[in-house]
Amino acid sequence: MPTESGSCATARQAKQKRKSHSLSIRRTNSSEQERTGLQREMLEGQDTKLPSSVRNTLLELFGQIEREFENLYIENLELRREIDTLNERLAVEGQTIDGAELSKGQLKTKASHSTSQLSQKLKTTYKASTSKIVSSFKTTTSRAICQLVKEYVGHRDGIWDVSVTKTQPVVLGTASADHTALLWSIETGKCLVKYVGHVGSVNSIKFHPTEQVALTASGDQTAHIWRFMVQLPMPQPTADCNQMSGEDEIEFSDKDEPDGDGDGSSDCPTIRAPLTSLKSHQGVVIAADWLVGGKQAVTASWDRTANLYDVETSELVHSLTGHDQELTHCCTHPTQRLVVTSSRDTTFRLWDFRDPSIHSVNVFQGHTDTVTSAVFTVGDNVVSGSDDRTVKVWDLKNMRSPIATIRTDSAVNRINVCVGQRIIALPHDNRQVRLFDMSGVRLARLPRSNRQGHRRMVCCTAWSEDHPICNLFTCGFDRQAIGWNINIPALLQEK
């Protein structure tokens, strides 16, 4: 019967195609060593400044890419033949279904549907085959540019905030849910000072612009101003953490978290009382910051207000009202008397105190969920992050719409901007930290493996552009802070 002969012919064609494909694969594998050897000889004959290990890695990666695309090309040819055969069969079946010819429009619809299915199959195969190679290449590049230098372990609960002093000696500060704030030697990872004056979670820490004074905000409805004096210990040689970064990422459990006091924060000097306590809020004080000059401080609270205080007298100067829900963050401009507050009401507000007689406020609406933070950059830009998984860059002169939008796969927590290089560090709920430029271009992702990186939600990031060893710090709910060295020139060159 015609149907049986057609099926036999189709089976023979399919068998021949599989045979041809297997022969092609064998030819590809047999010539692989010869091609690799030829590539190595050609590369060795060229003048290059790349180390031999880097050259070999590049050769292996590009060799894998070439083999994958060669296999995809062969499979693409076979799929095209299958499309032609399928179209012929559809045409024959269309004439015998009801004994009459189908309209050209019906045949075209059937053929188009089958073609689109095969096209989708080809796209899926391509993505699955190449994603692993591209991912490994990007991971290798990120590890070379972003290196873990030091881990700071000593808190008994999650760390909400991290900050770096603006005066010498440069030290690291962390604020934790364990009711303490700790100061650390950046080089050695040793705890230098412990502040225990709060009776609630310490939610933020910021340092005075010119003095060894810290400002902390707490769940006990207060903000404290306290003075410290530190003497840095001699740095000790440390192991290279990057030698341990070759493993693939894995899931972590709570039992992998640092235990107890870690590096022994109980051994460091303890400060038990503040110089000044700011007490005007009726709810959790979630953040605080110094205004330019350090003579005034601003606090943000879950009572839906932000307060401006005179530091010397502790008097309330202004109560900033207008948000419809709890505040989540506040930030001050580095050179001007400007304050930005963020809230769960999906907005952030800009407060202008440059003119003593006029205190203007502008409302920025652009997010669809809680605005977790908004920070200033040099110039007239504000960067905001949100639980809606976006980060937006705004021009203060035009607040109607953002000039750039970064879309991510996880909620964004307290962001920070490298002022000199205009690089945004994004901490995520999913334990990732990503770096973007101000135009929204992704630059890098900090490496995470089973031996380094954060094991739970990353809460905050902080840049320290002048420190020679670590220029980016992160903290998370895994009770540790991490110091990173970001090779910014290489990062921008990759861009």
Features:
alpha+beta, 5-stranded mixed sheet, 5 helices, 29 strands, globular, disordered N terminus, WD repeat-containing protein 37, cytoplasm
Describe the protein.
With 495 residues, the chain is α+β, with helices and mostly antiparallel strands. The protein contains 5 helices and 29 strands. The strands form 7 sheets. Strands 2-3-4-5-9 form a 5-stranded mixed β-sheet, with no helix packed on it. Strands 1-29-28-27 form a 4-stranded antiparallel β-sheet. A 4-stranded antiparallel β-sheet has the order 6-7-8-10, with no helix packed on it. The longest helix has 45 residues. It is globular and about 90 Å long. 34% of the residues are buried. The N terminus is likely disordered. This is WD repeat-containing protein 37. Keywords: Cytoplasm, Nucleus, Repeat, WD repeat. One of its GO terms (cellular component) is cytoplasm. Pfam families: WD40.
